[in-house]
Design a protein that fits this description.
By secondary structure, the chain is of the alpha/beta class. It has two domains: about 40 residues, no CATH class; about 250 residues, Aminopeptidase, CATH 3.40.630. It has 14 helices and nine strands. It is elongated and about 100 Å long.
């Protein structure tokens, strides 16, 4: 009887264990389906994707990477400092699954606050006073401003004529070759001191605008022996004729840049000039008693050439810091949602977008900045030419335009 009782107890225990195991399997399968459903139900950009993992991996610290290797091979951990802290696996899992970085509140606020994505740029090199509260950003003019022409002051119109006359007889000495190209994707961006208005959103004009800074930069480069060409066509006019939105400015200017590359094999460097909308104290610096409109380099990170363009921007920033301390606000990398992410820099490995001053700066102030940039760029160019030992700077050729267009573009 005891034996039967014992066997009966054993059978009962086995049946209970089997039921529990079955229940665990069912719950596990259901949990897996629920988890998979949650991940796939997120809107694009909110769930776990390869881009999220790539973004996390790019920001991985050196010690964290060694910790990951050490999970497979303890030998690697011998190289870590004695005070090194182990990485938080829960934090990593949370960041990869949600694309939210616990150490960067912008990754959460950007989804909740309209327009907050403007601050998603990454500061690669911070100039004096540069932080995430004063990143450069592009603001579209109100429709009524686009349709109505602003009135410029007589002094500004006089500056326009004077500048054009000053450049009539200039000729670079790169054997007659035009090696630098200047374009203005937002060519109507203007400066309040030159207009009969003090409203920031009205700082746009058909003639007195950022293109004058491009003309000044061209003249200063020519004076220093660097042949330069300027895109004279009206990008914003092309937008208007096609019924395109302001956000498509780079799509319109892209066509002009591609044509320039196709028509001139000598082109090596590409400048797209803009002006910022920040307050005067953020965009102005005094150097040796003279006021300048501060510059900032913006690099698009959504293409394969961005590291080349980033390196060029960093070098020019450092050169500006050495000769004109405080002039450069730094180097900003922009990529992902809420921005163009390319700025046509995928067409050339030596392309840059430069913001000159802001709406509150005068033309004289940004002219000085253009001269300063031409000064350091000429040093960069001719030093590279001397190292190369030929007439051309040893640089990467412009990328295959057709190949660049093969990449998906954001409209």
């Amino acid at each position: 009887m005891r034996r039967r009782g014992f066997h009966g107890f054993t059978v009962k225990v086995n049946r209970t264990s089997l039921k529990r195991l079955t229940a665990l399997i069912i719950v596990g399968v259901m949990s897996l389906f629920i988890f998979t459903g949650v991940l796939t139900s997120f809107e694009p950009g909110y769930g776990m994707a390869s881009s999220s993992i790539n973004q996390w991996a790019n920001g991985l610290e050196g010690e964290d990477f060694v910790h990951l290797l050490g999970m497979e091979n303890q030998y690697f951990k011998q190289e870590l400092p004695s005070d090194a802290e182990a990485m938080s696996l829960s934090g990593v899992a949370f960041q990869v699954a949600t694309s939210i970085n616990p150490d960067d509140p912008r990754s959460l606020l950007g989804r909740e606050l309209p327009g907050f994505s403007l601050f998603d740029g990454q500061i690669i090199v911070a100039g004096e006073g540069t932080d995430y509260t004063n990143l450069p950003f592009e603001s579209a003019p109100p429709l009524e401003v686009i349709m109505a022409e602003r009135e410029a002051t007589k002094e500004s119109l006089a500056k326009l004529e004077e500048l054009k006359q000053a450049g009539d007889n200039l000729q670079g000495s790169t054997d007659g070759r035009k090696v630098a190209h200047i374009i203005h994707s937002h060519n109507t961006e203007s400066f309040l001191p030159e207009l009969k208005t003090d409203v920031v959103n009205e700082a746009f004009h058909g003639e007195v605008n950022i293109t004058l800074v491009g003309e000044k930069l061209s003249q200063e480069l020519e004076k220093r022996g660097i042949g330069t060409e300027i895109e004279e066509r009206d990008v914003q006019g092309a937008l208007k004729n096609r019924g395109w939105q302001y956000a498509q400015s780079y799509d319109a200017s892209r066509e002009f840049v591609k044509e320039a590359i196709a028509q001139n094999d000598d082109l090596q460097f590409f400048f797209d000039l803009h002006r910022d909308t920040l307050s005067r104290d953020k965009t102005t610096v005094t150097i040796n008693g003279v006021e300048y409109g501060r510059t900032v380099f913006v690099v698009g990170g959504d293409h394969s050439n961005y590291e080349h363009n980033l390196k060029l921007a960093e070098e020019l920033h450092e050169m500006l810091e050495e000769k004109y301390p405080g002039l450069s606000r730094g180097v900003i990398l922009k990529a992902g949602r809420g921005t163009n992410g390319k700025f046509n820099q995928d067409l050339s490995k030596q392309s840059m977008l430069v913001e000159f001053g802001g709406v509150h700066n005068s033309l004289e102030e940004v002219y000085r900045s253009a001269e300063a940039l031409a000064d350091v760029f000429a040093d960069y160019y001719w030093n590279a030419e001397a190292v190369d030992g030929t007439d051309d700077v040893e640089t990467e050729e412009a990328v295959d335009v057709s190949a660049a267009d093969g990449e998906e573009e954001e409209k």
